[in-house]
Amino acid sequence: MIKSMAITFPDGNENFRERTGKDFTFFYEKYYPKLIYYTNKLCQDTQKAEDLTTEAFIIAFQKVDKYDIEKAQFSTWLFTIARNLTLQDLKTSKKTISMDVKVDEDGTTMKDFLQEEESLEYLHDISVDKAKIMKEHISRLKEPYKKVIEMREIKQMAYKDIAAELDKNLSTIKSQIRNGRKLLKDSTAKEFEILDEMFL
């Protein structure tokens, strides 16, 4: 188990608390191990993951004025910073990772993981109103997409558990979830656009 390192940023912590509702230490202790796990999946280098995680926290602390609590949870914003840092680092170092490398016990490959992270960011980094719209559109999905999306996104079930319960091949389940997410993104686009225009 990865333990967070001791780190403090005394100057500006009051401003950080006002912007996020919590002290910096709260987020650091809660998300440091999770962020290392997340970045390590992308870069496949534990030491590099630790460095990128620390850098992500520093950037989040220093640029907290750019964080908008109305648009996203702080954790979503933080993970986005870490992801961008990691992908930029991979690009700069020109490190190539096989898209077929498995990143979890479900057999998810790097390609699957990157696609899923993009989808999850889209699904989770939304307002309450958008969440209601998303839930309604999930209920309108046709089978087999409705069932697998509910199991994955609402019940947070693992791919292998969904496959076992539905008695289907794991690759079939992943394909259905990926296609279901695309259908959701397409079907909600217009309503989301209208909401965005209302708050501009």
The total count of helices amounts to: 9
Q: SSE order, as H and E?
A: HHHHHHHHH
Give the total of domains: 2
The CATH class of the largest domain = Mainly Alpha
The number of E-state strands comes to 0
By secondary-structure content and strand pairing, the structural class works out as mainly alpha
At CATH level 2, the architecture of the largest domain is Orthogonal Bundle
Helix content: over 70%
Low-confidence stretches: 1-6, 117-126
Concise summary:
This protein has 200 residues and is mostly helical. Helices cover 70% and strands 0% of the residues.
Please name the defining characteristics of this protein.
9 helices, single chain, Arc Repressor Mutant, subunit A, mainly alpha, globular, 200 residues, 2 domains, Rna Polymerase Sigma Factor, Chain: A
What does this structure look like?
The structure is a single chain. This protein has 200 residues and is mainly alpha-helical. The chain has 2 domains: 13-93, RNA polymerase sigma factor, region 2, helix turn helix motif (Rna Polymerase Sigma Factor, Chain: A, Orthogonal Bundle), CATH 1.10.1740; 110-198, Arc Repressor Mutant, subunit A. It is built from 9 helices and no strands. α3 crosses α4. The longest helix has 29 residues, at 170-198.
